[in-house]
Amino acid sequence: MIDWHCHILPGIDDGPATMDEAVEMAGILREVGYSDVYCTPHLIRGAFDASRDRVGKGVAELQERLNTLRIDLRLFPGREYYLDEFLAGYLADPQPLGTSGQILIETAGHMSPDYLKETCYRIRSGGFIPLIAHPERSPRFELPPPSKNGLREWFHGQCSRLQDKRRISNVERSSNPLVDYLSEIGCKFQGNIGSFAGIYGEPVRRQAVAFLEAGLYDRLGTDAHSARHLKQWLAQGLREAERIAGAEAVRRLLGAQPGTPGSDTMKRDDL
User: Fold this and answer.
1) What Cα–Cα distance (Å) separates residue 178 from each residue in 73, 119, 125, 185, 208?
2) What is the pLDDT of residue 250?
3) Distance (Å, rounded) from C-alpha 157 to C-alpha 249?
4) Number of domains into which the chain is organized
5) What three-state secondary structure class fits 169?
6) Residue 114, class by beta-carbon neighbours within 10 Å (0-12 exposed, 13-18 middle, 19+ buried)?
7) Quick check: 160 pLDDT over 50?
8) Cβ neighbours for 112, distance < 8 A, ≥ 6 positions apart
9) Residue 197 is part of which domain span?
């Protein structure tokens, strides 16, 4: 299992303040079944703007501690880029999620859809893949309430789409033009597991279900910031996602495809 979005590095953003708490988080993730974690501290000018070298050093230091403690969890560097007027400058030399070619983007509510489209198009033109973090938490990506008819059967049919290396448009499944456009140009969407557990509130939970039902998620992440209640809501969120879509589909969204190791070895053509 791969955690595609996690604030596990200590002392860099609003994640764990200490190495001990970061180790506690790692232990919980490993216990749940994760093998690989992309460390994605915020990059927000004036708030959380640690350098790329600092992030790399943080990954190395935490990995060394985990190795010493025999916690079998592999860490890879990444960032969660905030979509604001400073993002274009950071994209001159971006930090993708390891070597996956994906750049994790957190959308800002005050930014226009046109700016989001333009930025994501530029990222794609630069040879990277925008991975939109937790779209269920943004009104810009709102979908209609999900239908309950035949959901499990339909979603199992989507498993083949998740295995396919080609991006298949979801235009027929979305009533949101922004979601449709981003999907068409090859962007991907990452859902938060905690959303299914309701930790962000009921409206976000409903939107997470709608995205999962529509087959719009490509990845799932914990977006964990601390060890507090992590084991409880993570287990609850995974159970709920599996109830909705089936265990096999959820495993695929966690990167556990048959024949594909949970590792940082995926090439861009495999995404």
Assistant:
1) 36, 13, 18, 11, 17
2) 96
3) 9
4) 1
5) coil
6) exposed
7) no
8) none
9) 2-270
